[in-house]
């Protein structure tokens, strides 16, 4: 009976351990390598950016859409798109959820930025 109780408690402990999440900032045209996942993520481009500028009152917050190229080892690369304000904000590729957490610079009509866009992408293993 003790062995069964110990087995159940170890199983329960394994179930409630959260999946590891990593976050990566990527500039347009650049790539990052996610070590534990063995993924390479390239931020290809900002497809659209209709987010409401911070100095304007809008009736809709808008949306930013990014195109990413994701590869893993010798597998064929997959092109995915992520959004900030509409679905999909998360996509699953090669067993990992990729989510757009932020895109900078944020639109501002009084101070337009010429900075290279940077995306903050979170990577999380999908539970099996």
Description:
This protein is mostly beta strands and about 130 residues long. It has one domain (about 20-125): DU1608 C-terminal domain (Tick-borne Encephalitis virus Glycoprotein, domain 1), CATH 2.60.98. The protein is about 10% helix and about 45% strand. It is built from one helix and eight strands. The strands form two sheets. It has a four-stranded antiparallel sheet with strand order 1-8-7-6, with no helix packed on it. A hairpin with a 5-residue loop joins β4 and β5 (about 80-85). The longest helix is centred in the N-terminal third of the chain and has 14 residues, at about 1-15. It is elongated, with a radius of gyration of 19 Å. Residues about 5-20 have low confidence and may be disordered.
Gyration radius, to the nearest Å? 19 Å
- Class by alpha and beta content: mainly beta
Order of helices and strands: HEEEEEEEE
CATH architecture title: Sandwich
| Overall structural domain count | 1
CATH-assigned fold name: Tick-borne Encephalitis virus Glycoprotein, domain 1
Overall pLDDT metric: 85
Major β-sheet strand ordering: 1-8-7-6
Tell the overall outline. elongated
What low-confidence regions span 5 or more consecutive residues with pLDDT below 50?
A: 3-18
In CATH terms, the superfamily is DU1608 C-terminal domain
DSSP strand tally = 8
Which range best describes the helical content: under 10%, 10-25%, 25-40%, 40-55%, 55-70% or over 70%? Answer: 10-25%
**What composes the largest sheet?**
4 strands, antiparallel
Report how far apart the termini are: 29 Å
Q: Work out the strand percent.
A: over 45%
Helix count? 1
Text of the CATH class = Mainly Beta
């Amino acid at each position: 009976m003790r062995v069964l109780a110990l087995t159940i408690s170890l199983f329960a402990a394994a179930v409630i351990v959260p999946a590891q999440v990593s976050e990566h900032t990527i500039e347009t045209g650049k790539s990052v390598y996610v070590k534990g996942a063995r993924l390479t993520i390239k931020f290809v481009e900002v497809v659209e950016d209709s987010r409401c500028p911070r100095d304007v009152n809008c009736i809709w917050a808008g949306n930013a859409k990014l195109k990413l190229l994701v590869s893993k080892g010798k597998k064929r690369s997959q092109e995915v798109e992520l959004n900030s304000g509409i679905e999909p904000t998360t996509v699953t590729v090669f067993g990992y959820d990729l989510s757009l957490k932020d895109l900078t610079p944020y639109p501002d009509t009084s101070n337009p930025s010429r900075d290279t866009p940077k995306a903050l992408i979170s990577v999380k293993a999908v539970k099996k």
